[in-house]
Amino acid sequence: MTDDTKFHHGDVDDSVAPIIQMRDIEKHFGNIIALAGVSFDIRPGECHCLLGDNGAGKSTFIKTMSGVHQPTHGEILFEGRQMSFSTPRDSMEAGIATVFQDLAMIPLMSVTRNFFMGREPTKGRGLLKRFDVDAANQITMDEMRKMGINLRGPDQAVGTLSGGERQTVAIARAVYFGAKVLILDEPTSALGVRQTSNVLATIDKVRKQGVGVVFISHNVRHALAVGDRFTVLNRGKTLGTAKRGEITPEQLQDLMAGGQEMAALEGSLGGTV
Amino acid sequence: MSDAAENQKTDERVKAEPLLSRLMKRPELGAIAGVILVTIFFLLTADSAMFTLAGIVNFMTPAAQLGILAIGAALLMIGGEFDLSIGSMVAFAGLFFGVCIIVWGLPLIAAIPLTFVFSACVGAINGNIVIRSGLPSFIVTLAFLFILRGLSLVGLKWATGGSTQLRGIRDAVEGDWLASVFAGDAFPGLFVWLAERGLVDTFNNGNPKVPGIPVEILWFIVIAVVATYVLLRTPAGNWIFAAGGDKVAASNSGVPVNRVKVSLFMVTACCAAMVAIITMIDAGSTDARRGFQKEFEAIIAAVIGGCLLTGGYGSAIGAFFGSIIFGMVVIGLTYTDFDQDWFQVFLGGMLLIAVLFNNAIRKRVTGER
Fold first, then answer.
1. Looking at residue B7, what is its pLDDT?
2. Over the stretch A130-152, which tens digit does the pLDDT of each residue have?
3. Which pLDDT does position B320 carry in this prediction?
4. What is the pLDDT of residue B145?
5. Residue B101 carries which DSSP code?
6. Does the ipTM exceed 0.95?
7. Measured between beta carbons, which residues in chain A are less than 8 angstroms from residue B367?
8. I want to staple A106 with a disulfide (CB 3.0 to 4.6 A). Which of A226, B169, B245, B346 is the partner?
9. Are the CB atoms for B346 and B82 separated by under 8 Å?
10. Can you tell me the distance from the alpha carbon of B306 to that of B356, in angstroms, rounded to the nearest whole number?
11. Residues paired with residue A25 on neighbouring β-strands, in sequence order
């Protein structure tokens, strides 16, 4: 799985300046320390995987990045400048788009209407200002084709799309509206094998357009298939960042599980996880 | 140009969609099919007078009065909320309008805008309670169904000194140029001209049997067209669908869901005010039973028109046809040998069939299994 991947990885130069740098982020909820000093950065055109088991702090961390939570300590640099996002809207406007698991899609509405929901293109002025349906349809068809999905028509309801296709619509929408950083929260967790590979292919296409992708997963195989760098979180701390090729799936798996327990389980499961 | 050409290139795995199945996707299909079925039914059973010009005006008038309410109700249902208080709102707006004219002696040019502003405020109260409390709009507006009906009764007694009927509106608005915009018949000259040339039925004295198109029918058509345009061709329309489809997803995408919903409650209340004004100028009086049970009839018309009770799907033009079905059944039965009271059975049956039909269609459209 790791060696025969068909993707051309980002191979981003170390010298390229990161879009976002998160330094020593801590987040406390009352007396609970959810994040205890996490550092992370993302460069344009790379896919940086954030791995961790349930409860490792992945969700808290990306919510800090997308402005849902404010860090208790630590700093966020966006394109070299110090930033503090107080609402999700702030980070969206800066160019950080988050595709959450629920996708913010409405099944009964057409792909076009979902694509432009809340940001409809208009033409005309005053009372004649209207939703430019033709332009919206055209853009939707084009953007979806770029992502490798041929819609039956722009009026096709999102409910008729598969889970992977919906994920792709959500990603295409974020990219079209100018995302510089795309945070994907477990995009493959509920998908079948083929749908997963479609989404991974979409990540690859987005990366080629120069967008930095933060790919959250607890599936090592999915992460290794597209990732350029891998950061493992465990119990609110970074266990280190590895580049592609420097780490084996087994090592990643062990890091995620915190090492010991996994080694003990390995024997009885016969290496199936 | 090459762009457009490329657009025509379709996926070879996708079969060309037959026209029928494309039509099936329109939410108003059920209502149009219903109009055709009901027309066939009455062509077979009713007196042929029903489908003369006079007969059509006869059933379009109640259809228009209900339809104005039903279009408001449909927009609100697509936006994911209900308003059970629209029937009572007709009486309450009527009371306010009557007080403006009779008690305060205002001209129509002041009374009509005041009535709309007042109704919009009541709608906004309704909407704000629903949004802020997070309660189902069914419960909140059920409360308002009784509150507004009761207030109308109390208010009428106060305004008239004990009666539940307020009379004398026709005399008060006599000669007011605005009255003809909201009541009476439009294009009388045209109908006289048509009668002179023998193109429409006339009485023995040469006057046309239908003196003109009742203006409420014109309002009904205009409102249906505007509502359809807003729904399908404006950003606000997209927001209405989005707010009704999934309010969390919509607000995450930047749709001002609460503002959309409160505005829809205001629009619905204004539709009720519109009906109150039209019927009061026409009849010259109002009473506390105005609009009684209209909320249910309006919701039935909206559902026959393809609106889902869960929101996010439906059409204004569907509610238009749903109301025409209603008018045809109510009036049409008088042209047949059937007992008129069959109308309620008919209406309930239509509702049940429409809901079953709409559910099946929606499952096909959205690929739900």
1. 42
2. 899 899 999 999 888 888 888 88
3. 96
4. 95
5. I
6. no
7. 157, 159-161
8. B245
9. no
10. 11
11. A38
